[in-house]
Structure formats: C-alpha cells, structure tokens
Amino acid sequence: MSPGLLARLAWQGLALHKLRSTLSAIGIVFGVAAVVAMMSVGEGARREVLSEIGKLGLTRISVRTGEFSDEAQNEAASIQSPGLTLRDAEAISEVCPTVASLAPVRQRSVQVASGQRREEALVVATTPSFARTEDIVIAAGRFVSDADLRDAKRVVVLGHDLSEGLFPYQDALGERVRLGGEWFSVVGTLAPRGRAKRGLRLGSRDIDRIALAPLTCLPAPGDAIDEIAISIVSSDEVGGSARLIDSLLRRRHRGAQDFELVVPQQLLAGYERTRSQFNVVVGSIAVISLLVGGIGIMNIMLANVSERTREVGVRRSLGASRADVVQQFLCEAILLTGAGGAVGVVLGVLGSLAVSRFAGWATATSPAAILMALALATATGLGFGIYPAWQAASKNPLEALRHE
Amino acid sequence: MIAPPFLQAVEVSRVYPRFQNALVALDGVSLEVNRGSFVAIMGPSGSGKSTLLNLLGCLDTPSSGRILLEGEDIARLDDRAASRLRNRRLGFLFQSFNLIPQMTVVENIETVLLYSDRPRGEWRSRALAVLESIQLAERAAHRPAELSGGEAQRVALARALVNDPDILLADEPTGNLDSKTGEHVLDLLLGLQDQGRTIVLVTHDEAVARRAQRIVELKDGRLVRARQTNGETS
C-alpha cells in the first residue's frame, strides 16, 4: 500500500472522532513544543557563550585585578601585597616559556570628546604587544609604538564604533580628541570586531569602543596595573601555563587573593559541563513529556481498535492480512503523533521567538532540533501504537465480524 | 481423468472448546459445489450453516477435515495466503451488509482493491463500473448511513464483485430486507450465476433456498439432506 493511501486511510479513521483525536495529540503537541523551545533557548545561549569565549581566545590568559570581597582586600592589605604591578608582568614573561606575547594594561572609563561630539569609551593604556595579544587589526594608520611608549606620547588608536561616533563625516586620522582632560592625536583606527549581545559578561572588552593609548600616558602609583593580557604559544599549553602563572603570582603576592586568572579555555570546559547537564535535563523532560503523550495515544488507539473491531473483521474478509491491519492502525498512531509533533514544533518556535522578544534572551532553532523533535514524536507514535495495532490484527476475523 | 469438484468440504468438523463441554458446531460434513452452480445451505439456528460457510471462505479453520478449492486444500493456509485467496477468488455478502461507515459507497467498494494487485489507476473506474451495473452509480459519493437496506446490500454485492471473484459466499443476504427488496437481491445473484459465478448461500428461509439449484440441509452440525430444486420463483 502506498504511503499516500495509508495516510488517507489513517485520516479517515482518525476523523471518526475528531475531538478525541485532537485531545489525544495535545500531550504530544505540548511535549514537543516545550522541548523545541528549551532547545532553542539552550542553543541560543550556547552560540552566544561560544562566540564570547571565542572572542576572548582559546590561547589567551588574562590576569586581572578586580573587585574582591572586603575580607580579601583586608587580607591583601595585612600581608602588604602590592596588587598587580608591572613587575608581575615582567616576572611572568621571564618565568613562563610558553608565553607568546604579553601586555600590561591600565584601563579607565572616560568621556572622549571631539568638538561637540562626546562618547563614553574605555581607555586602554598598554604596550605595542597588546596588538598581538588581542589580535588587533588596524584599519588605518598605525598602532601604539615603542617610541610612543618610551616618550609617553599623547597618541591614541580608536576602536571602529568610537571613531565613527566621534568622526562620522571625516577621517579620524590626524585629528585630536580629548581623553578626560588631555588632548591626544589619533594615529590609527581599528577594523570592526563585533561583540556578543548584551547580557553576557565574560570580561571581554568591546574592542569597537576602546581608545588605545601608550601605557606610560596613564601612570599609576607603584606601577599598579589592572590587567596582564597574555597569549600562549598553543592551546595545548594553556592549562599548564595558567597553573604556573597562578603559583608564581601567589608567591609574589604572598598568598593574597588580590588577582584573578581568567582562562577562556577553562571557561569553555566549564560551560561544556554545564551544557551537558542542561542537555540531560532537556532530554529527561522530553522523554517524560513524550511518555505521557504516548500513553494518551495508546489509550485512544486502544479505544479506536475496540470500537472498530467490526471494521477489522470486514477488512479481513475483503482480503486484508494481519500485516495490512497492523500497518493501518500504526499509521493512524504515527499520523496522530506526527501531526502533534508538527504543531508542537510551530508552537515551540513561536515560544522561543516570544522568549527572545520579551525576555531578551538569544534563541536559535536549528533544523537538527526540529528534525529530532519530529523524529521523537513519530517514534512515540510507533512505540505506543504498535500494541493497539497488534491487538487489532490479532483479532479472529470471524469474531471481529460478529462484534457489535 | 475426472476433474475434482470446484469447491469441496471433506469430513469437516468444527469444535469450539469450552470450559466444560466442547461445542460441536459441525460434525463430519462433506459437500461438493460445482463451478457455476448455486447451492443453498439451509437449516435452523445453530445448525452450523454459517460455520460451514465461514470455513469455505477461509474465515475460520476446521478442527478436522479438509476444504478443497480445485483440489487444493485451503483450510490451513497461512494468514497471507488465506487473505490473498479471500481477496482474489472469494466475495462475501453479509446479512448486516458490513459497509464501513466512515467511507463513501465508492470507497467501500475500492477497499477490496486496496488489498489486490490491481493498479491504483483502475480502482475508481472499476468501482464505478460495478456500481453502474447494479444501478447505483448516483449513490457513489454517499455514506452507508444515507442508503436504504436494499441499496446497502446492493453496494455490498458490488463490493463483493469488484475484484471479479469465482465464488460468492452469502450469509443470509436477504435476512434484513423486505421481501420485495430481498427478491431483487436474489435476482441479482441469479444473474451472476448466469455469468458463470459459483454461489453458496446460507438461509433459514425455504423460499429463498428454493431459488438455488441445490439445497443442502444441516441440523445439529450434521448434513441431513441434499436435494435438487427447479430454481423456482417464490
């Protein structure tokens, strides 16, 4: 029998009790919708996190001084830890052979002004090696040079968006901007980088909105710095290098916890662990939903078979084999769950769009997720329809014909 | 060499096992039906006539004995072979018509072809042609609930004939019809016999049975008498 004919036959059977068939499919509809929506939210979050981690770079390590608890600050003060300094950066460079490049960073949020235009920006004062550490791509002009650093020249390299904001109608190169209270010459602009949506804070800078200046232009007492940006020679070396840097800095800081090591590779591993837990939760919900939906389908199919016993007898007398009867009722169950699954997919996609629109979360519905949801729904029909179908087929044709 | 009878029951018994006393529905019945003949099986309720018809139609399996079609034992065919036989060589007519309610008249007729080897393209034309032959073409798109008893039985007859079977097995086909409609259905059956089909009809009505060429009488599961008739009109 052709699939089209089988489907028509199944539809005729199900249409006998439209409301009952619809209600029985609702379990599958909501089960599939929930799974698709959750997978979309999960996938959206995954892509965003991976993009953010990717921007941080999997061969990077960042040592930061950050906001620590009062207890940690008091402890650091009591053991007279100087905090993160230029000397820490030098020590790392000397001790750790796997460092490909290293850049100390001081950064402040300031207002950048040019004529009447003002923009909030992050001024990053650093060394020329920052370009390599952060994979900076120059769009025009040049980066901060060793001479700029040595002479503490008031030069600045603007991120793409900042440059566009300050100089929308002209080339920024050679112009002067005011950072805080001082004038700087623009010597370069950066190529656009792009950034993950709001909501994720893994610590990556918005390169498109930074103003890069020589480290010496932003002096700090005791050579204090805010961050040491490090690039490691290969991703295989990152774990060992991170452990070495951590132990080196602990020793230098006399055990004070006044710095923080951010290792994107470890963040990724941690995220993947969380992700697999999330997958287990989503999978469990899917299994439970479809189990409940499947039991509803089996219930209805058993009722259908019982009500249509005489029809089974008639078909058998007309030449239907047991296999034909199994095929017919199985097709009804699959049609029921398949249609429920299709409606569920639509609802799930709409649900994920609603989440994205109203909660602002990133969502992404992959074709693989849709196919998997439909396959699961169909498999549910197959699994829970086989027993009623077999019951129908195993009826004695004669007794089935006599059934009232 | 003498050709074997077209359809034959040889010492057929059918016993239904019960908890205490087994029910003997048929007890060593033998019957021969020639090709193109019209045989009526008669007897009171519980005599075993429907049981015999169901055994001849491979809807049931005898406890002992053989059912032969053109000399070949068809009593113990596997499910697939028995289904093929019912579909290709046998046509059934029931007292309660047994049309599938959710399908239209023409779809009911096509159901037989669904299980046949006939190409999909000829199903509709074949179903409509056979419906035309019993003057019910205008009812093709109707559902069984919209038909009178006589019309429903004629549709059932069209369904039985659509795959061009050799043998028509009719179980009290006039039982639910008024006498005039019943006569009409019997006339149709006689017309089919004239076309060369073999007809086996079960009835408890002597007047109906007399329309056949031969009457076989059963009582308490045993064959008690077999006689020729003139095929007279009641």
Mean pLDDT of chain A: 86
Instruction: State the end-to-end CA separation of chain B.
Output: 40 Å
Largest chain-chain contact? A-B, 26 and 27 residues
CATH superfamily grouping of chain B:
P-loop containing nucleotide triphosphate hydrolases
> Which sequence of SSEs, written as H and E, runs from N to C of chain B?
EEEHEEHEHHHEHEHEE
- CATH topology of chain B, which one? Rossmann fold
CATH architect. name of chain B: 3-Layer(aba) Sandwich
Q: Provide the gyration radius of chain B in Å.
A: 18 Å
Spatial strand arrangement across the major sheet of chain A? 2-3-8-5-7-6
Distance between the termini of chain A: 29 Å
What kind of oligomer do you see?
A: heterodimer
Topology order of chain A in helix (H) and strand (E) letters: HHEHHEEHEHEHEEEEHEHHHHH
Mean pLDDT of chain B: 90
* β-strand amount of chain A: 15-25%
Low-confidence stretches of chain B: none
Structural summary, described in words:
- The complex is a heterodimer of chains A (404) and B (234).
- Helix content of chain A is 56%, strand content 16%.
- With 404 residues, chain A is α+β, with helices and mostly antiparallel strands.
- In chain A, strands 2-3-8-5-7-6 form a 6-stranded mixed beta barrel.
- In chain A, helix 2 runs antiparallel to helix 9, helix 2 runs antiparallel to helix 12 (367-393) and helix 11 (322-359) packs antiparallel against helix 12 (367-393).
- Chain A is elongated and about 105 Å long.
- Chain B has 234 residues and is an alpha/beta fold.
- Chain B has a single domain, classed as Rossmann fold (3-Layer(aba) Sandwich).
- Chain B is 31% helix and 26% strand.
- Chain B has 7 helices and 10 strands.
- In chain B, the strands form 2 sheets. In chain B, strands 6-7-8-3-9-10 form a 6-stranded mixed beta sheet, sandwiched between helices.
- In chain B, a hairpin with a 2-residue loop joins strand 9 and strand 10.
- Chain B starts with 6 loop residues before the first strand and ends in a 6-residue tail after the last strand.
- Chain A binds chain B through residues 1-2, 5, 9, 12-13, 15-16, 310-311, 313-324, 396-398, 401, and chain B through 54, 57, 59-60, 79-80, 83-84, 86-88, 92, 94, 98-100, 102-103, 107, 111-112, 114-116, 120, 159, 163.
